[in-house]
Write a structure and sequence with these properties.
heterotrimer; A: 320 residues; mainly alpha; 16 helices; globular; C: 547 residues; alpha/beta; 6-stranded mixed β-sheet; 20 strands
């Protein structure tokens, strides 16, 4: 089993490296470099050519691609993401607090989503085809079809306009304390949670149905084991394992959802930073945030795979 | 031979029929919108933020003074167009790449899968944000970005389906007959991946429309003054206390279209016996 | 007094039992129709039938269990006098596993893969017999011993996929016996096993029967098995009981036509062949020769095999044999013996690591893509699973005309005519040309596959277990059609099968393969009647013990 884990880890590191290359390359295919993207027509009118060239040299953009990549990548590994164009602030300072805030929000979302999705998935899967199942399943499809920003905006309308319980716009600073943030993260979290519970419960339902129809569940039932034990001891573990395989996609989905929701509610997270960086055309900031997200996805995927390797005896002894 | 049966199962499911109806209504509305609208969508034709109910402007005007009804009816065209083009290209390339990678195997397959894994690690919106930062907010950039964004996920799913087909007897028979690589892919493999490709197309359509709307809302997608539902929602948020419908109406339009697409593709997947609940990026 | 004794003897009875399933288009299809039988204490009853006759549904219905969509339309099942339909779920649950036990067909997919094997039996003991953890553990070990599992303590800690097929089946039998049930139902328990393993499991059941006095219902498609194992037998067709009686008399003197046909179709290992084979060629002429053929599996490098030890497994080891024009050479062996690998090597799907293949004295390039057109045309292959060997999206006409056009370049009209003729040879109606594979039955599909193979007018046909997935009666028909075409065209055939009876019926000479080695290579009659090799004798003994 040890070697299987090592192999999986190596693969992840490879993908991490490729992701770095990917993120870096995405801006390399531009005609011109990051500075060209950043400077607006107004800037170009105002600045002298030598000024621009000096800026270019300052930021090291005149060097060949692989040198820049290596520089950037080795910096990233120790947490140095370079500097912004405006004001030359270290990017790592800009994104540190938003990163924590987003992680907090993401954690809230994930911890609430899964238990509920599991419950709904199992209940509807068990009573497949019944009235309740059809109603809940259709509601779920509607649930994940409505865009996050629509749900968010509607929640604002309901809870801030019609019933002034929450402030419509969050005034929180990047470095607010976790306590303050938790209170303020309720509506944004709820927005994402609705869609995610809807979607995940459908996935779990499908997996659960498949498991309940499998031969080993039939045999256990025919052995007279009570239904509750059949479900919890036999069927449930078997349906959870395939769920872990789509965990990476799920995390990527959460991150995408965060971007939207942070904009809607003004939550001081990484997503909001991203949007601002795009509007200011700060290429390096966008790169940094994208790479961090990719890293998070890869790490979570690795953990999920580890969990599968540990939990699924068939995978564990593949080599023996 | 199988299609009559599939149609029968589809028509028996009320959810699916509702979905198909919604989609059809939207498609017709989108196609005929230019003929129906009373005013030009980008022209300022009235007072700012007038209330709905007037004879001239059934739904009032927006925050710049453009006729709201016209903008609402035309709001889906661009995003549907972008989604359709992007997904069509994505599925086409994904099918070819996925099936050939599954069949040829070896280093080619390995490289493809590593690239797919890498891209899948980057969340959709961030990937598109990256491209939009570099290339600007043109429609073409949007189409390319969305296409590239959905390509790897589709490749992975189609490839795993192709892998179940390739070891089958009739493919080996074709190999032994001396059929060329292209013949085998085109005659034996692609026809047997039809179902998964159709379901993938439907599902990706719905999620890409969601994505385009979200991007427009965030200011990364379709740029003003083109009317787009997502864009209109972000414009309407400023006046949400007083003019709530400016947000609710486009929201309802987007939602109904995506709900319709999802209901329909869910029903389609069930009828074809495939795993209904796939990942939405 | 007598009546009470009689009812005490009756453990189980069904009366007019009718079961139906709702199909996809909401129609009710009857799967079991008006079935009545009785089971006495301690007796072994066989239920025999081909696929789709309803025996599996019946087996589960006896336990009060129906697959989703199933409904009891009429009749009843009584266990020890109590009607099963009247029982509530918890009452059923206390009966199942305790008084009526079930042994399913496929032990690998029937055992919970994420639980240790010992724990799964403990569970039954704890729930039905109320044992605590310690006692249950000991009892499980005792059960493993009684089913002759080697090293019970080790087996206890293993997961299902870590055991062999025979071991798994014994585990499942232990689970069934855990509470000393009055009735044990076995649903095709040995179909997934090798011949020799099958024999061991059957012997085990026979011995246990003597020790425990449990009534047994044994479900199978194989009449020779019921002859070996059972006291009485029921023959089912299309959901109805066609014949019943003492097992040996039903087998030896069947009264109903269906049963007679069924028995006649069984290829016998212990009797000389009854049907005509293809023509016996003259000595000296050789069509295909295989010299020192060897093959080892070596997984290719890819990122998924990083750090994995690259294990070599020798699948085929220095095999020599030859095939003469027009003859049928049988290739027998158990699963894993390398038979399919040899077929793949001959046809060029795999390249041998060593050795040569000679076609009429000239060496054949090893991989199909390096061979010439002619060389590829002359050797054709037919696969085991008929449905997957035909492209589901192509009509039968296209399937058969493809090789005709590829190898002979004839026009579509001529190809269609030839295809029609081939269908005729295989006794298939012309309308089939327009149909798709899924609309045909398994036997018909396999005949199409044969037609396709013969369309190329090959000199040699490789048949890799082509009838193993078919019912016995269909099998006999397909084989007779095959030999008829062989006689007509003079095509030689390499017939691969694990079923010794089939080989005896059809092959002139045969090769016995054990773990990649040729163990015996002689005329069929010699091998079957006068073999000296211990492995062959073991195989023959296992196969004929049924009879």
């Amino acid at each position: 089993m040890f070697w299987i884990l090592i192999r999986r880890l190596t693969l992840s590191l490879l993908i991490l490296f490729l992701a770095a290359v990917f993120v870096f390359m995405a801006t390399e295919v531009l005609p011109g470099d990051a500075l060209d993207v950043f400077l607006t027509a107004d800037d170009l009118a105002v600045m002298e050519v030598e000024e621009i060239e000096e800026m270019r040299r300052d930021f090291g953009l005149d060097r060949p691609a692989w040198v820049r990549f290596w520089d950037w990548f080795s910096g990233v590994l120790v947490g140095d993401f370079g500097k912004t164009f405006i004001h030359e602030v270290p990017i790592s300072e800009i994104i540190w607090h938003p990163l924590i805030n987003s992680l907090l929000l993401g954690a809230v979302i994930t911890t609430i989503t899964f238990p509920f999705a599991l419950l709904i998935g199992i209940l509807t899967g068990y009573r497949r085809g019944s009235q309740e199942d059809i109603i809940v399943s259709t509601t779920a499809i509607v649930g994940y079809s409505i865009p996050d920003f629509v749900i968010g905006t509607c929640l604002i309308i309901v809870f801030a306009v019609w019933m002034p319980l929450f402030p419509a716009v969050i005034i929180a600073f990047s470095d607010s304390s976790p306590g303050e943030l938790l209170a303020v993260s309720l509506l944004p979290a709820l927005t994402v949670i609705i869609g995610h519970i809807a979607h995940q419960s459908r996935l779990l339902r499908a997996g659960f149905i498949e498991t309940m129809n499998s031969e080993f569940v039939e045999r256990v039932r025919l052995s007279g084991i009570p239904e509750s034990r059949v479900i919890f001891r036999h069927a449930l573990p078997a349906s959870v394992i395939p769920m872990l395989n789509s965990f990476a996609m799920y995390i990527a989905g959460v991150l995408s959802g965060l971007v939207v929701v942070e904009k809607v509610f003004g939550y001081p997270g990484l997503g909001r930073e991203l949007i601002e960086a795009v509007s200011r055309r700060e290429v390096h900031v966008v790169q940094a945030i994208t790479f961090l997200s990719a890293t998070l996805v890869i790490v979570m995927n690795l953990l999920a795979d580890f969990a599968v390797i540990i939990l699924d005896p068939r995978v564990r002894s593949l080599k023996s | 031979m199988k299609y009559p049966r599939v149609l029968q199962v589809l028509t028996h499911s009320p959810g699916t029929m509702v979905g198909v109806t919604l989609v059809v209504v939207h498609v017709i509305a989108t196609l005929f919108a230019p003929l129906l609208i009373p005013f030009e969508v980008t022209k300022i034709v009235g007072p700012v933020l007038s209330s709905p109910g007037s004879v001239e402007h059934w739904l009032g005007t927006d925050n710049i003074g453009r006729d709201y009804l016209s903008r609402l009816l035309m709001g889906g065209r661009t995003s549907i167009f972008v989604a359709m083009v992007a997904i069509t290209f994505a599925i086409m390339f994904a099918s070819l790449i996925a099936i050939s990678a599954a069949y040829v195997g070896g280093i080619y397959d390995d490289v493809v899968m590593r690239i797919v894994d890498t891209k899948l690690a980057i969340p959709g919106i961030l990937f598109i944000a990256l491209i939009v930062t570099g290339f600007g907010r043109s429609i073409l950039a949007l189409i390319v970005a969305i296409s590239l964004s959905y390509l790897p996920g589709a490749i992975r799913i189609i490839r795993s389906h192709a892998l179940t087909i390739i070891p089958l007897g009739f493919v080996e028979t074709a190999k032994l007959r001396g059929d060329s690589l292209y013949r085998i892919i085109w005659n034996e493999l692609v026809p047997n991946c039809q179902e998964i490709i159709a379901v993938e197309f439907a599902l990706r359509m719905s999620s890409s429309i969601l994505t385009v709307s979200a991007l427009s809302f965030l200011g990364l997608g379709i740029s003003p003054p083109t009317p787009d539902w997502g864009l209109m929602i972000s414009e309407g948020v400023k006046n949400i206390h007083t003019h709530t419908w400016l947000v609710l109406l486009p929201a309802a339009f987007i939602s109904s279209l995506v709900i319709g697409l999802n209901l329909a593709s869910d029903g389609l997947a069930n009828a074809l016996g495939l795993d209904a609940a796939r990942g939405i990026n | 007094m007598q009546l009470e004794e009689l009812t005490e003897m009756l453990i189980l009875e069904t009366e007019g039992l009718t079961i139906g399933y709702r199909s996809v288009n909401r129609q009710m299809v009857r799967v079991v129709n008006n079935v009545s039988f009785e089971l006495e204490k301690g007796e072994t009853l066989g239920i025999v039938g081909e696929s789709g006759c309803g025996k599996s549904t019946l087996a589960r219905a006896i336990m009060g269990y129906l697959r989703p969509g199933g409904q009891i339309l009429g009749g009843n099942v009584r266990f020890k006098g109590t009607s099963m339909q009247a029982l509530k779920l918890d009452e059923l649950q206390s009966l199942r596993g305790r008084q009526i036990a079930f042994v399913p067909q496929n032990p690998l997919s029937s055992l919970t893969y994420h639980m240790k094997v010992g724990d799964q039996i403990d569970e039954i003991l704890k729930i039905h017999r109320g044992l605590n953890r310690h006692d249950a553990h000991n009892e499980t070990l005792k059960l493993f011993q009684s089913t002759r599992l080697p090293e019970p303590a080790q087996i206890y800690q293993r997961y299902p996929h870590q055991l062999s097929g025979g071991q798994r089946q014994r585990v499942v039998i232990s689970a069934a016996l855990a509470c000393l049930p009055s009735v044990m139902i076995l649903d095709e328990p040995t179909t997934a096993l090798d011949t020799t393993t099958e024999m061991q499991v059957l012997q085990l059941v026979k011995e246990l029967r003597k020790e425990i006095n449990t009534a047994i219902i044994y479900i199978t498609h194989d009449l020779t098995l019921t002859n070996y194992m059972c006291d009485r037998v029921l023959v089912m067709q299309n959901g109805e009981i066609v014949e019943h009686g003492p097992a040996s008399s039903v087998f030896e003197c069947p009264k109903e036509k269906y049963t007679q046909d069924l028995v006649a179709a069984i290829p016998r290992v212990d009797r000389p062949p009854r049907h005509k084979k293809s023509y016996e060629p003259e000595n000296g002429s050789v069509l295909l020769e295989v010299k020192e053929l060897s093959f080892a599996f070596r997984p290719a490098w890819s990122s998924s095999t990083l750090f994995k030890k690259r294990e070599f497994s020798q699948a085929v080891d220095q095999v020599n044999f030859s095939i003469r024009p027009g003859e049928t050479l049988g290739l027998v062996g158990e699963s894993g013996s390398g038979k399919s690998t040899i077929a793949n090597l001959l046809v060029g799907l795999l390249a041998p690591s060593l050795g040569k293949i000679l076609l009429e004295g000239k060496p054949l390039p090893l991989l199909a893509k390096k061979r010439t057109f002619e060389q590829r045309r002359r050797v054709q292959m037919i696969f085991q699973d008929p449905l997957s060997s035909l492209n589901p999206r192509q009509r039968i006409e296209k399937i058969i005309t493809q090789p005709l056009r590829a190898f002979f370049g004839i026009s579509p009209r001529d190809a269609r005519d030839q295809a029609a003729k081939l269908l005729e040879d295989l006794e298939l109606p012309l309308e089939f040309l327009e149909q798709f594979p899924r609309q045909l039955s398994g036997g018909q599909q396999q005949r199409v596959a044969i037609a396709r193979a013969f369309a190329a007018q090959p000199d040699l046909i490789l048949c890799d277990e082509i009838t193993s997935a078919l019912d016995v009666s269909v099998q006999a028909h397909v084989l007779s059609l095959l030999t008829a075409i062989q006689r007509k065209t003079g095509t030689a055939c390499l017939l691969i099968s694990h079923d010794l009876g089939v080989v005896r019926e059809v092959a002139h000479r045969c090769v016995v393969l054990q773990e990649g080695f040729v163990v015996e290579y002689d005329t069929t009659e010699k091998v079957f009647t006068d073999s000296k090799h211990p492995y062959t004798c073991r195989l023959l003994a296992a196969a004929s013990r049924h009879e």
